[in-house]
């Protein structure tokens, strides 16, 4: 055991150092990244799925050039709008950027809102092959085994046909397919992508995965109280409109119209700030009511996105890194330098072995925010998503947006659906319709 401990400690010491800044949209992640990069000779790697696309800097919330302080930004502003960008592509680009930055003696700082992308930091991330160990009969993961996705496989991934994607995954790996709703196109496609890039079933890879980080990584979490954040996000949408977001929305709409199929799903069309305005655009940009509704929907979807980002950090990221994260309170921006900038700089100095202060490592979060990283809010929540109750139930009375029977995953979700007002309402309407059809048939018989 001692030998293994010494070995793991040696590996950690040999690992290249990387900083990750996580947090919701609108908390100042990019600002902090620039500050740390300026102070500690760093360069920034974008991990936001919308900011990889060319142009539209306002709608995609790219940090303004004038505020970047000359710091190079990688994996940003390069992808054409008609291309999809997958996790395995981000991994290749991000790792290449990290190697390049470190080779020049600089510090990689990863920042962005697509926290799902951070899986590439782990050896457990599935760019792996599963092999059998003869000694202990346990599956192990070996890195560097990504293969090129075949053209026929890429066609399936890009098909936009969620039924085809789900059915393909179901054929390949029914065990992992049972964990996802057929309409959860992004995650289902990701599981299929794992199979196509590794040749191994995701269920087998997940069962064998390890949780070791590839890099010696410092995780910083910028957090804002939701009430204050909501106000800030609403104001930011208004500022984006004033700054010229309309011109970018027009630009996107013109491209949208030029496509053979007007498909607003996936790729650049996931950006918050386009689909919300489609009714207004399609109406010829004449209806002020539709414009105002678009602005309101953009604000709502931005706030909802921020909530999802927090859940992902708590349920996925923190359990995976064993709680090794520092929380910075970005609620009051007037206190930025004291509670965010200076504290982040001190933590970074210790991480880079520039100075020593064991007390900072003991204080993972301000006292009032310690609950955010408690086991109840993190590890406990993750356990809840790994249960074995993954049976699919289909309600033929209630329909989804495509007119198919509504699918519920797990007996709890199914029971909740059966008790819902929607289901009971549909039952009542169905009974009334059946009674009416019976009466109608009786009337027809009586007239004959």
UniProtKB/TrEMBL annotation:
InterPro entries the UniProt entry points to: Dimethylallyltransferase, IPP_transferase_euk, IPT, P-loop_NTPase
Entry's Gene Ontology cellular component terms: mitochondrion
SUPFAM superfamilies named in the record: P-loop containing nucleoside triphosphate hydrolases
Keywords from the UniProt entry: ATP-binding, Cytoplasm, Nucleotide-binding, Transferase, tRNA processing
GO biological process terms on file: tRNA modification
Catalysed reactions listed for this entry: adenosine(37) in tRNA + dimethylallyl diphosphate = N(6)-dimethylallyladenosine(37) in tRNA + diphosphate
Record has DNA damage as a keyword: no
GO molecular function: ATP binding; tRNA dimethylallyltransferase activity
EC number: 2.5.1.75
Pfam families assigned to the protein according to its UniProt record, in alphabetical order: IPPT
Gene3D superfamilies the UniProt entry points to: 1.10.20.140, Classic Zinc Finger, P-loop containing nucleotide triphosphate hydrolases
Known role: Catalyzes the transfer of a dimethylallyl group onto the adenine at position 37.
NCBIfam families: miaA (TIGR00174)
Family: Belongs to the IPP transferase family.
Protein name per its UniProtKB record: tRNA dimethylallyltransferase
Organism of derivation: Maudiozyma barnettii
Lineage of producing organism: Eukaryota, Fungi, Dikarya, Ascomycota, Saccharomycotina
